[in-house]
Amino acid sequence: MKRIRQISVFVENRPGRLLEVVDLLGKNNINIKALSLADSSDFGIVRLVVKGTDEAIKVLKENGFTISETNIIACMIDDKPGALASILRTLADNQINIEYMYGFASPIEGKAVMVFKFSDLESAEKILEQNNIKTLTQEEIREI
Predict the structure, then answer these.
(1) Distances (CA, A) of 83 to 18, 22, 25, 99, 122
(2) Are 7 and 72 in contact (CB under 8 A)?
(3) Which of 18, 32, 106, 126 lies in the 20 to 30 Å Cα band around 136?
Protein backbone atom coordinates (compact mmCIF):
# COMPACT_ATOMS: atom_id res chain seq x y z
CA MET A 1 0.00 0.00 0.00
CA LYS A 2 1.38 3.37 -1.01
CA ARG A 3 0.07 5.55 1.74
CA ILE A 4 1.72 8.81 2.69
CA ARG A 5 1.82 10.20 6.21
CA GLN A 6 0.39 13.70 6.47
CA ILE A 7 0.61 15.92 9.54
CA SER A 8 -2.29 18.24 10.39
CA VAL A 9 -1.45 21.13 12.69
CA PHE A 10 -4.25 23.04 14.37
CA VAL A 11 -3.40 26.73 14.61
CA GLU A 12 -5.13 29.87 15.76
CA ASN A 13 -6.35 31.99 12.87
CA ARG A 14 -4.16 35.03 13.54
CA PRO A 15 -1.31 36.79 11.73
CA GLY A 16 2.04 35.03 12.04
CA ARG A 17 0.80 31.67 13.30
CA LEU A 18 1.51 29.86 10.01
CA LEU A 19 4.95 31.46 10.01
CA GLU A 20 5.62 29.96 13.45
CA VAL A 21 4.91 26.46 12.12
CA VAL A 22 7.02 26.68 8.96
CA ASP A 23 9.82 28.60 10.70
CA LEU A 24 10.02 25.95 13.42
CA LEU A 25 10.28 23.19 10.81
CA GLY A 26 12.86 25.13 8.83
CA LYS A 27 15.03 25.78 11.88
CA ASN A 28 15.00 22.01 12.51
CA ASN A 29 16.03 21.27 8.92
CA ILE A 30 12.68 19.64 8.08
CA ASN A 31 11.75 20.22 4.45
CA ILE A 32 8.10 20.80 3.58
CA LYS A 33 7.18 18.87 0.44
CA ALA A 34 3.51 19.98 0.29
CA LEU A 35 1.30 22.29 2.32
CA SER A 36 -2.39 23.11 2.42
CA LEU A 37 -4.13 25.61 4.67
CA ALA A 38 -7.84 25.43 5.47
CA ASP A 39 -9.36 28.02 7.73
CA SER A 40 -12.40 28.71 9.78
CA SER A 41 -13.23 31.81 11.80
CA ASP A 42 -11.04 30.94 14.81
CA PHE A 43 -8.74 28.08 13.82
CA GLY A 44 -6.99 26.78 10.76
CA ILE A 45 -5.66 23.40 9.78
CA VAL A 46 -2.22 23.29 8.21
CA ARG A 47 -1.77 20.03 6.35
CA LEU A 48 1.84 19.08 5.69
CA VAL A 49 3.77 16.41 3.87
CA VAL A 50 7.37 16.70 5.01
CA LYS A 51 10.69 15.01 4.68
CA GLY A 52 11.13 13.68 8.22
CA THR A 53 7.60 13.07 9.47
CA ASP A 54 8.57 11.59 12.86
CA GLU A 55 10.97 14.44 13.60
CA ALA A 56 8.38 17.05 12.54
CA ILE A 57 5.77 15.53 14.85
CA LYS A 58 8.24 15.52 17.73
CA VAL A 59 9.32 19.14 17.16
CA LEU A 60 5.77 20.43 16.75
CA LYS A 61 4.52 18.65 19.89
CA GLU A 62 7.51 19.85 21.93
CA ASN A 63 6.60 23.39 20.94
CA GLY A 64 2.98 23.10 22.02
CA PHE A 65 1.23 22.55 18.72
CA THR A 66 -1.79 20.25 18.54
CA ILE A 67 -1.33 17.82 15.68
CA SER A 68 -2.82 14.69 14.17
CA GLU A 69 -1.52 12.25 11.60
CA THR A 70 -3.50 11.01 8.61
CA ASN A 71 -2.79 8.54 5.82
CA ILE A 72 -3.24 9.99 2.36
CA ILE A 73 -2.47 8.98 -1.21
CA ALA A 74 -0.27 10.96 -3.58
CA CYS A 75 -0.65 10.46 -7.32
CA MET A 76 1.76 11.49 -10.06
CA ILE A 77 -0.21 12.94 -12.94
CA ASP A 78 0.59 14.53 -16.26
CA ASP A 79 0.87 18.30 -15.97
CA LYS A 80 -1.47 19.08 -18.86
CA PRO A 81 -5.06 20.20 -19.35
CA GLY A 82 -7.57 17.45 -18.61
CA ALA A 83 -5.24 15.13 -16.68
CA LEU A 84 -6.80 15.86 -13.30
CA ALA A 85 -10.31 15.63 -14.76
CA SER A 86 -9.49 12.18 -16.09
CA ILE A 87 -8.51 10.91 -12.62
CA LEU A 88 -11.48 12.58 -10.97
CA ARG A 89 -13.79 10.99 -13.55
CA THR A 90 -12.36 7.55 -12.79
CA LEU A 91 -12.89 8.11 -9.07
CA ALA A 92 -16.42 9.47 -9.54
CA ASP A 93 -17.40 6.61 -11.86
CA ASN A 94 -16.36 4.21 -9.07
CA GLN A 95 -18.16 6.15 -6.30
CA ILE A 96 -14.91 7.12 -4.55
CA ASN A 97 -15.41 10.19 -2.36
CA ILE A 98 -12.63 12.76 -1.97
CA GLU A 99 -12.63 14.52 1.39
CA TYR A 100 -9.98 17.03 0.29
CA MET A 101 -7.04 17.33 -2.06
CA TYR A 102 -4.16 19.62 -2.90
CA GLY A 103 -1.29 19.53 -5.32
CA PHE A 104 2.23 20.62 -6.01
CA ALA A 105 4.55 20.85 -8.97
CA SER A 106 6.94 18.00 -9.53
CA PRO A 107 10.57 18.51 -10.51
CA ILE A 108 9.93 15.85 -13.14
CA GLU A 109 9.26 17.65 -16.42
CA GLY A 110 5.59 17.48 -17.38
CA LYS A 111 4.41 15.95 -14.11
CA ALA A 112 2.52 17.19 -11.05
CA VAL A 113 1.61 15.53 -7.76
CA MET A 114 -1.92 15.50 -6.34
CA VAL A 115 -2.49 14.57 -2.70
CA PHE A 116 -5.86 12.99 -1.86
CA LYS A 117 -7.69 12.21 1.37
CA PHE A 118 -10.36 9.65 0.56
CA SER A 119 -13.32 8.53 2.65
CA ASP A 120 -12.45 4.91 1.84
CA LEU A 121 -8.69 4.64 1.41
CA GLU A 122 -8.63 0.91 0.54
CA SER A 123 -11.24 1.22 -2.23
CA ALA A 124 -9.45 4.27 -3.63
CA GLU A 125 -6.12 2.41 -3.71
CA LYS A 126 -7.75 -0.49 -5.53
CA ILE A 127 -9.40 1.74 -8.17
CA LEU A 128 -6.22 3.75 -8.75
CA GLU A 129 -4.19 0.57 -9.20
CA GLN A 130 -6.78 -1.02 -11.51
CA ASN A 131 -6.68 2.09 -13.70
CA ASN A 132 -2.87 2.31 -13.81
CA ILE A 133 -2.80 5.66 -12.00
CA LYS A 134 0.67 6.11 -10.53
CA THR A 135 0.70 6.45 -6.75
CA LEU A 136 3.80 7.45 -4.82
CA THR A 137 5.43 5.93 -1.77
CA GLN A 138 6.63 7.93 1.24
CA GLU A 139 10.19 7.41 -0.02
CA GLU A 140 9.32 8.70 -3.50
CA ILE A 141 7.75 11.83 -1.98
CA ARG A 142 10.89 12.42 0.09
CA GLU A 143 13.02 12.34 -3.05
CA ILE A 144 10.89 14.81 -4.99
Answers:
(1) 31, 31, 33, 20, 23
(2) no
(3) 18
